[in-house]
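Long-time lurker, first post. I've been practising inverse folding by hand and with some scripts of my own, and I keep getting stuck on stretches where the structure tokens seem ambiguous. Below is the full token string for one chain I'm working on. Before anyone asks, I'm not after the true native sequence, just a reasonable design that respects the backbone. If someone could post their per-position residues I'd love to compare against what I wrote down in my notebook.
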């Protein structure tokens, strides 16, 4: 590997400081596991650093890292089947464990939102999560997907219509 120019190294470290928490939240929302989310975020930064060290030009590091992370999440789901309740119980999961009422309500709301999002395509779901959960702008999402801002705005609008329709059906 080549010696990475100091400016690129500083840009990468700044991106790590600014993006590690939002990337973790996005990843956790998608995989629902702290350990897996941490591993995927770490691997995203590692792969990005390797690309930088090999001399690849990265124009938008934020979009690049999100793309790497999204691919790792897809790989994760391809490799791992969801566990059965029996396996969870064997591992010590206790469904009767007491939680505060606020925590229960928050979990129920997230579960409800998740159920509506599951009913739309993964591309639409990614748009909604990136825009409203991760707080990315339409411009940043457009760069991430390599599409025009107008196209992303239209797709996002249509995705929200689908979610509202599913919500009204219930």
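-- Answer (accepted) --
I ran through it position by position. Result:
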């Amino acid at each position: 590997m080549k010696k990475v120019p100091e400016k690129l190294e500083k840009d990468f470290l700044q991106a790590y400081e600014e993006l590690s928490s939002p990337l973790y939240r996005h990843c956790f929302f998608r995989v629902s596991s702290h350990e897996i989310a941490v591993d995927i975020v770490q691997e995203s930064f590692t792969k990005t650093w390797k690309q930088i060290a090999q001399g690849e030009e990265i124009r938008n590091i934020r979009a690049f890292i999100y793309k790497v992370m999204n691919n790792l999440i897809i790989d994760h789901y391809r490799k791992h089947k969801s566990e059965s309740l029996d396996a969870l119980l064997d591992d010590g999961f206790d469904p009767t464990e007491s939680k505060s009422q606020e925590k229960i309500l928050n979990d129920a709301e997230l579960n409800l939102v998740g159920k509506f999002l599951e009913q739309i395509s993964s591309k639409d779901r990614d748009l909604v999560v990136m825009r409203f959960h991760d707080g990315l702008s339409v411009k940043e999402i457009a760069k991430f997907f390599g599409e025009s801002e107008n196209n992303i705005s239209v797709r996002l609008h249509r995705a929200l219509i689908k979610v509202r329709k599913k919500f009204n059906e219930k």
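A couple of notes from the structure itself: The helical segments are 6-31, 34-53, 61-79, 85-90, 101-118, 122-133, 138-145, 149-169. The domain at 99-170 is CATH 1.10.10.10 (Arc Repressor Mutant, subunit A). Happy to go over any region you disagree with.
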